[in-house]
Amino acid sequence: MTTAVKSMKFAWTAFVIPFVFVFGPGLLMVGDIDTILLTIAMAAIGAYLIFVAFLGCFSRPLNFVNRLLLVAAGFAAQTPAGATPIGSIIYMADVALGALVLGREYFVGRRPAASATV
């Protein structure tokens, strides 16, 4: 893997977060405290989910479907709640999806490997 590809795993936030600033003014500390805290938390959760998907491993290597689910949940988490009429439902659904995928990977990755006896 080239150095440019490796650095892109970290640099994607430099391209995405400015759009989140525009569509979610809570990141600019505009609005009431609940909106600001929710926007910051969801942007951080979304960035983490996408980072794990781009990295390709959590407690073990992720397959393509899990990586795709994490990217979808991460981008949905970064979509501001005011962008759609059902923004709060989208927030809850993507956090649940991300938690399910990461939780499954955590517990399956911690399971001891079956011993190969011949």
Structure, described:
This protein has 118 residues and is mainly α. The chain has one domain. Helix content is 70%, strand content 0%. The radius of gyration is 17 Å and the shape is globular. The mean pLDDT is 81.
Structural class: mainly alpha
Overall 3D form: globular
Order of helices and strands: HHHH
Number of domains: 1
Number of helices: 4
For the biggest sheet, the summary is:
none
Intertermini distance: 37 Å
Unreliable spans are: none
What Rg is obtained from the alpha carbons, in whole angstroms?
A: 17 Å
Q: What is the share of helical residues?
A: over 70%
Structural topology:
Layout: H1 3-23, H2 33-55, H3 64-78, H4 87-110
Characteristic key phrases:
single chain, 118 residues, mainly alpha, 4 helices, 70% helix, globular
Compact description:
This protein is mostly helical. It has helices at 3-23, 33-55, 64-78, 87-110. Helix 1 (3-23) runs antiparallel to helix 2 (33-55), helix 2 (33-55) runs antiparallel to helix 3 and helix 3 runs antiparallel to helix 4 (87-110).
